[in-house]
């Protein structure tokens, strides 16, 4: 036996309304018999299926008719979607997936997402990459570096970066576009850190001046930096002072100096270059076509090395400033420089202080100075050439009508009255000439 159910007024289904005039709200017991056929062909989405239900008559013909029309409009919309869009029962999830796949902007959205990801990944200062590199290499980030990565000049002397800290720094500097001058002096980076900086400079085209002095890079770092100089075209100042460089490092640097035409200032002072290195670097200097300033002070270039380097200077036509102080040129080096001064017509500033040049060496050097027309500044302090050697140098300047000499430095060399008289007469023809010396001999004797 099927028990009938009561349906309230609000649950009246239009498809079962048959008496328009019944307003009493009386219920009709269907007695478990299936309801009358629907008023239109049943659809899978039809609301007319009320099998086995007890339904009540609609009390209002107007309300019943309005609800019927609303139901028909809704069903017509569903039928239209079913006919035009191909929607079938149970396929809602499949249809939703098909809409996503058939979206005409599907590829464009992926491209935009990729573009935004690339924009987020690009960091012109390199801060994010520096933090990640420090985490990867297990080093503490330098807060000063993070605060000043957007400056054009960055001074990080004595920060104790070490090789790992230098690696992290180099990784972030690959994409940095702000820093133009970088000072990393005395950071104990050694060869590994120097190689990391060299790799960075192969990619970074903004840094133009870099100071890597006092970092003990040795041959390993010199080899990496030499390879960089063969590719880099923006760096014009490089300081490698105090890096334990010897003749093996010189062999790596030589081809770089010959090929690179952009580097203008190179500091190789306070290293371990000896005679062999002097020969190697001399040949490179003769072929170089871009360098304007070279510092080789505080090395051990002497004997054959000094002669070979002077011969290289003779063939150079670009170098303007050369510092050979605190080497061991001696008489042989001074004689070789005589020939260099006779043929070189570009050198303007020469420092050969503290090179054990005796009086005989000064005489030969003066012969070259007597015909030179470009040298403006000459520093020969702390050489054992005595007052006679100073006198010979000054005399050659006076005898050269085309001389360009403006400053002579004879510091720590005492001169006699004869030198003073010569200087006074030279001032008549060269009023701008300045001479510095260690004082007059007589005055020194009185003080002692």
UniProtKB/TrEMBL annotation:
PANTHER family according to UniProt: LEUCINE RICH REPEAT FAMILY PROTEIN, LEUCINE-RICH REPEAT-CONTAINING PROTEIN 74B
Transmembrane spans: none
Name this polypeptide is given: Leucine rich repeat containing 74B
Location of the region described as Disordered in the Swiss-Prot/TrEMBL record: 1-97
Sequence ranges of Acidic residues compositional bias: 74-83
SMART domains: LRR_RI (SM00368)
């Amino acid at each position: 036996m099927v028990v009938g159910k009561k349906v309230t007024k609000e649950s009246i289904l239009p498809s079962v309304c048959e008496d328009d005039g019944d307003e009493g709200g009386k219920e009709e017991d269907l007695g478990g018999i299936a309801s009358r056929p629907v008023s239109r062909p049943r659809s899978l989405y039809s609301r007319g299926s009320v099998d086995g239900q007890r339904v009540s008559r609609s009390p209002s013909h107007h309300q019943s008719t309005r609800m019927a029309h609303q139901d028909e409009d809704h069903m017509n919309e569903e039928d239209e979607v079913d006919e035009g869009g191909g929607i079938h029962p149970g396929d809602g999830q499949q249809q939703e997936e098909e809409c996503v796949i058939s979206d005409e902007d599907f590829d464009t959205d992926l491209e935009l997402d990729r573009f935004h990801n690339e924009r987020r990944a690009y960091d012109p200062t390199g801060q994010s990459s520096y933090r990640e590199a420090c985490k990867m290499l297990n080093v503490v980030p330098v807060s000063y570096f993070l605060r000043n990565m957007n400056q054009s000049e960055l001074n990080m002397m004595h920060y104790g970066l070490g090789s790992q800290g230098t690696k992290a720094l180099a990784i972030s500097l690959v994409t940095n576009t702000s820093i133009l001058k970088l000072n990393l002096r005395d950071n104990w980076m050694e060869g590994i850190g120097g190689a990391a900086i060299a790799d960075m400079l192969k990619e970074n085209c903004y840094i133009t001046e870099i100071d890597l002095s006092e970092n003990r890079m040795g041959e390993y770092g010199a080899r990496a930096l030499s390879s960089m100089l063969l590719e880099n075209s923006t760096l014009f100042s490089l300081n490698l002072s105090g890096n334990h460089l010897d003749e093996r490092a010189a062999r790596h640097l030589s081809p770089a100096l010959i090929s690179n035409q952009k580097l203008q200032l190179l500091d190789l002072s306070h290293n371990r270059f000896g005679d062999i290195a002097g020969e190697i670097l001399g040949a490179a200097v003769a072929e170089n076509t871009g360098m304007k300033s070279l510092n080789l002070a505080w090395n051990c270039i002497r004997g054959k090395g000094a002669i070979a380097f002077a011969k290289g200077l003779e063939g150079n036509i670009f170098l303007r400033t050369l510092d050979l102080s605190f080497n061991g040129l001696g008489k042989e080096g001074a004689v070789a420089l005589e020939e260099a001064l006779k043929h070189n017509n570009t050198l303007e500033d020469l420092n050969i202080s503290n090179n054990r040049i005796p009086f005989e060496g000064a005489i030969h050097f003066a012969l070259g100075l007597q015909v030179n027309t470009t040298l403006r500044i000459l520093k020969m302090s702390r050489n054992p050439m005595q007052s006679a050697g100073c006198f010979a140098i000054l005399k050659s300047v006076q005898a050269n009508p085309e001389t360009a000499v403006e400053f002579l430095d004879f510091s720590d060399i005492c001169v006699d009255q004869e030198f003073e008289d010569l200087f006074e007469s030279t001032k008549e023809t060269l009023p701008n000439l300045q001479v510095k010396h260690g004082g007059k001999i007589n005055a020194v004797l009185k003080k002692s």
